């Protein structure tokens, strides 16, 4: 499938096709994005798939270099940006050349930020390899790195020239990473698309087995929904906030667990909690709440806050949420499967109830 992210002159395609990794060279040559490419990747992805991508560029006569950094969120920082920029400079990359961000969200965020700033901006292409990156971080143009004071505090909005997605690479993804990505997938159904939610419920087995045709449709639908939301609201106004469904409580759970609960699984807990909250406030029918919680549970995703997590610590994290406006935490609440409302009208007692 091919999706266009509609951003006027900066519109670009997202191409989702099984096996496309071996044909990235041909795709880039056809689109004449740059004459020379730096592929920025973490060591794990480079080890697993670096040769396939570099061979594909080579076959089309595209001059390219693979530049790697050590995997992990801990390396998503300015030191890595500096090291990558130095590597680009020493290899003679100039403003006519392009950068390919190849890997999960960490590689994409770092490579995108380097592309936005190296020589004041060079062409950028994304080849995301985790499910989270394929359905979320590679779409929307947010790039950046962490600093000790907080995550993603230094960055830029920088749109790629194209995103190339191959679901076949997901086969080597650790189970937890796949599940975390699936939480974000289910999120799209709940916030925007009831039919897609039903599709996810009915095709669970095939999705968990990474059936290529079903995965292609799944990833494409998620990208379409995110692209739609981003096109309506590139710089994070009200529309884009619906993407934070499950993330307010999710981030608090992630933080309170000292990041031992990975992002996607914390978001799953957050989505279930927000659905319960919506029901408690009387904006979501019980039947829809139960279907949301059951869908997450059937996928093997967590739907309640672990007993050992300190509730008061979670509540402390809630108040530090980026989306706190005027001292009020804003929650994205489903009003049906496929629709949401944003509400700040939530009492501490209601939070206590849904945290359980
Ligand atoms: P990640 O990039 O660290 O990848 C997770 C791990 O999987 C890494 O060790 C990586 O080497 C490995 N890996 C990647 N692809 C693989 C494959 N196909 N097979 C086997 N292993 C593979 O983490 P992530 O979950 O992809 O991304 C998280 C990051 O994304 C966070 O830094 C977050 O802030 C960012 N993010 C950005 C946006 C955005 O809009 N820019 C949105 C959401 C998240
Ligand atoms: Zn998320």
UniProtKB/TrEMBL annotation:
<keyword id="KW-0456">Lyase</keyword>
<keyword id="KW-0520">NAD</keyword>
<dbReference type="GO" id="GO:0003856">
    <property type="term" value="F:3-dehydroquinate synthase activity"/>
</dbReference>
<feature type="binding site">
    <location>
        <begin position="129"/>
        <end position="130"/>
    </location>
    <ligand>
        <name>NAD(+)</name>
    </ligand>
</feature>
<dbReference type="GO" id="GO:0000166">
    <property type="term" value="F:nucleotide binding"/>
</dbReference>
<dbReference type="InterPro" id="IPR030960">
    <property type="entry name" value="DHQS/DOIS_N"/>
</dbReference>
<dbReference type="InterPro" id="IPR030963">
    <property type="entry name" value="DHQ_synth_fam"/>
</dbReference>
<dbReference type="GO" id="GO:0009073">
    <property type="term" value="P:aromatic amino acid family biosynthetic process"/>
</dbReference>
<dbReference type="InterPro" id="IPR016037">
    <property type="entry name" value="DHQ_synth_AroB"/>
</dbReference>
<dbReference type="Pfam" id="PF01761">
    <property type="entry name" value="DHQ_synthase"/>
</dbReference>
<feature type="binding site">
    <location>
        <position position="247"/>
    </location>
    <ligand>
        <name>Zn(2+)</name>
    </ligand>
</feature>
<feature type="binding site">
    <location>
        <position position="263"/>
    </location>
    <ligand>
        <name>Zn(2+)</name>
    </ligand>
</feature>
<dbReference type="GO" id="GO:0008652">
    <property type="term" value="P:amino acid biosynthetic process"/>
</dbReference>
<feature type="domain" description="3-dehydroquinate synthase C-terminal">
    <location>
        <begin position="181"/>
        <end position="324"/>
    </location>
</feature>
<keyword id="KW-0862">Zinc</keyword>
<keyword id="KW-0057">Aromatic amino acid biosynthesis</keyword>
<keyword id="KW-0170">Cobalt</keyword>
<keyword id="KW-0547">Nucleotide-binding</keyword>
<protein>
    <recommendedName>
        <fullName>3-dehydroquinate synthase</fullName>
        <ecNumber>4.2.3.4</ecNumber>
    </recommendedName>
</protein>
<keyword id="KW-0028">Amino-acid biosynthesis</keyword>
<comment type="similarity">
    <text>Belongs to the sugar phosphate cyclases superfamily. Dehydroquinate synthase family.</text>
</comment>
<dbReference type="Pfam" id="PF24621">
    <property type="entry name" value="DHQS_C"/>
</dbReference>
<feature type="binding site">
    <location>
        <position position="151"/>
    </location>
    <ligand>
        <name>NAD(+)</name>
    </ligand>
</feature>
<dbReference type="InterPro" id="IPR050071">
    <property type="entry name" value="Dehydroquinate_synthase"/>
</dbReference>
<feature type="binding site">
    <location>
        <begin position="105"/>
        <end position="109"/>
    </location>
    <ligand>
        <name>NAD(+)</name>
    </ligand>
</feature>
<keyword id="KW-0479">Metal-binding</keyword>
<dbReference type="GO" id="GO:0005737">
    <property type="term" value="C:cytoplasm"/>
</dbReference>
<dbReference type="GO" id="GO:0046872">
    <property type="term" value="F:metal ion binding"/>
</dbReference>
<dbReference type="GO" id="GO:0009423">
    <property type="term" value="P:chorismate biosynthetic process"/>
</dbReference>
<comment type="pathway">
    <text>Metabolic intermediate biosynthesis; chorismate biosynthesis; chorismate from D-erythrose 4-phosphate and phosphoenolpyruvate: step 2/7.</text>
</comment>
<dbReference type="InterPro" id="IPR056179">
    <property type="entry name" value="DHQS_C"/>
</dbReference>
<feature type="binding site">
    <location>
        <position position="184"/>
    </location>
    <ligand>
        <name>Zn(2+)</name>
    </ligand>
</feature>
<feature type="binding site">
    <location>
        <position position="142"/>
    </location>
    <ligand>
        <name>NAD(+)</name>
    </ligand>
</feature>
<comment type="function">
    <text>Catalyzes the conversion of 3-deoxy-D-arabino-heptulosonate 7-phosphate (DAHP) to dehydroquinate (DHQ).</text>
</comment>
<feature type="domain" description="3-dehydroquinate synthase N-terminal">
    <location>
        <begin position="67"/>
        <end position="178"/>
    </location>
</feature>
<keyword id="KW-0963">Cytoplasm</keyword>
